C-alpha cells in the first residue's frame, strides 16, 4: 500500500537512488529506471544546494531520526529549475544500521 506522500518520494541508500515514486519521477522528468543507481545529490540538486542537503542527510543518519524540511532547487531533464522541499528520514535494518 502506498501511503500519503510516498508517490513523490525517493529512497536513497548511501547516496544512490534505490527507488523512486511515480510523482517524483514525473516531476524530475526521468523514468525510474534512469534514476536507479544514480547519485541523488549530483543528479538532481544544483551545486549551490548540495552542502545543505548533505548536512540534512548527515543529521538524519547521525541521530537516527528525521531532518528538518529543506527547500532546494531541483533540475529537471528539460533544464527547468523547480523548488522542492525535502525531508530525510533514517531507515534502519534489523541490526539497527
Describe the structure using short key phrases:
97 residues, two-stranded antiparallel sheet, alpha+beta, single chain
Describe the 3D structure.
With 97 residues, the protein is of the alpha+beta class. Helix content is 31%, strand content 22%. It contains 4 helices and 4 strands. It has helices at residues 22-28, 32-35, 40-44, 50-63, and strands at residues 10-13, 16-20, 70-75, 81-86. The strands form 2 sheets. It has a two-stranded antiparallel sheet with strand order 1-2. A hairpin with a 5-residue loop joins strand 3 and strand 4 (81-86). The longest helix is centred in the middle third of the chain and has 14 residues, at 50-63. It starts with 9 loop residues before the first strand and ends in an 11-residue tail after the last strand.
Beta-strand residue percentage:
15-25%
Uncertain regions: pLDDT < 50 for 5+ in a row?
A: none
What class do helices, strands and sheet pairing give? alpha+beta
Average residue-wise pLDDT: 80
How many angstroms does the end-to-end distance come to?
Answer: 25 Å
Radius of gyration from CA coordinates:
13 Å
Amino acid at each position: 500500500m502506498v501511503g500519503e506522500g510516498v508517490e513523490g518520494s525517493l529512497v536513497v541508500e548511501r547516496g544512490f537512488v534505490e527507488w523512486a515514486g511515480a510523482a517524483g519521477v514525473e516531476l524530475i522528468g526521468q523514468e525510474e529506471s534512469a534514476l536507479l543507481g544514480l547519485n541523488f545529490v549530483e543528479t538532481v540538486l544544483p551545486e549551490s544546494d548540495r552542502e545543505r542537503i548533505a548536512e540534512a542527510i548527515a543529521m538524519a543518519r547521525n541521530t537516527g531520526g528525521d531532518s528538518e524540511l529543506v527547500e532546494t532547487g531541483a533540475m529537471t531533464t528539460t533544464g527547468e529549475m523547480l523548488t522542492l522541499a525535502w525531508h530525510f528520514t533514517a531507515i534502519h535494518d534489523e541490526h539497527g544500521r
